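Sequence design from tokenized structure. All designs in this work follow the same two-part layout: the structure record, then the generated sequence. An example of the structure record is given first.
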């Protein structure tokens, strides 16, 4: 026990601890946003809350990916289980895409049926949400880079996507409140813009994950730089093959 405390956290433990922080935050924020959206007549905030609810599921997928990827190589997987993280990242990306499309469809329906102007207190809640989400993004992205985990980096961008949807909601609600009668649908337009951001981020992350699964080769400039660095290591005679090349 004493030795375990003295030893630095391994990649798996740090990854799990990091994702659990995001998961706990998403549970709390999802409840706050949905309840506030209902009480404050804001579909943009409710849509944001729905996206946060899906974040909970995506965090669980990432946790599973990290756990599987940490397993040692075996008879059926002689090269280990590292691709599990890429599959987890791809799953999270697909969840984002489905959420974005669903929110876009619902936003268009709401635009055709304007509702009451959102309450002012919804803006206060959104400011807090934006700050928390940006902090989570920076934290997870930093950890993802340090432990070389694509799934954690993808999860980090999920938090940034959530922050951007909250910013869009804030702008839309502000326009609806300031504009008054006739501007109620600005809240729904904000939700539509947010769905576009979600879909864009989902496609970007899906492409990245797919490239890693397919062992996509780096561009020639990057490959040459890696070869030079490797050749400069004492004892290295030549580089026969680049991973993924």
């Amino acid at each position: 026990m004493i030795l375990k405390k003295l030893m630095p956290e391994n990649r798996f433990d740090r990854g799990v601890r990091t994702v659990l922080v995001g998961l706990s935050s998403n549970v709390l924020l999802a409840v706050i946003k949905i309840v506030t959206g209902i009480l404050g007549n804001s579909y943009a905030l409710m849509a944001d809350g729905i996206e946060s609810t899906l974040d909970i599921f995506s965090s669980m997928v990432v946790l599973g990916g990290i756990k599987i990827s940490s397993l040692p190589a075996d008879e059926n997987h002689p090269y280990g289980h590292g691709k599990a993280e890429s599959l987890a990242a791809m799953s999270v990306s697909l969840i984002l895409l489905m959420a974005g499309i669903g929110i876009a469809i619902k936003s268009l329906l709401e635009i055709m049926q304007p509702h009451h102007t959102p309450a002012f207190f919804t803006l206060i809640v959104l400011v807090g949400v934006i700050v928390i989400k940006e902090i989570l993004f920076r934290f997870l992205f930093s950890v993802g880079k340090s432990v070389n985990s694509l799934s954690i980096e993808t999860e980090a961008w999920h938090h940034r996507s959530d922050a951007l949807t909250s910013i869009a909601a804030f702008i839309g609600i502000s326009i609806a409140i300031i504009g008054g009668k006739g501007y109620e649908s600005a809240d729904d337009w904000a939700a539509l813009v947010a769905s576009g951001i979600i879909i864009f981020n989902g496609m970007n992350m899906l492409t990245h994950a797919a490239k890693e699964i397919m062992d996509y080769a780096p561009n020639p400039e990057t490959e040459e730089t890696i070869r030079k660095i490797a050749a400069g290591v004492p004892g290295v005679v030549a580089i026969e093959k680049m991973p993924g090349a």
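Residues 150-179 form the longest helix (30 residues). We note this feature because it recurs in several other targets discussed in the main text.
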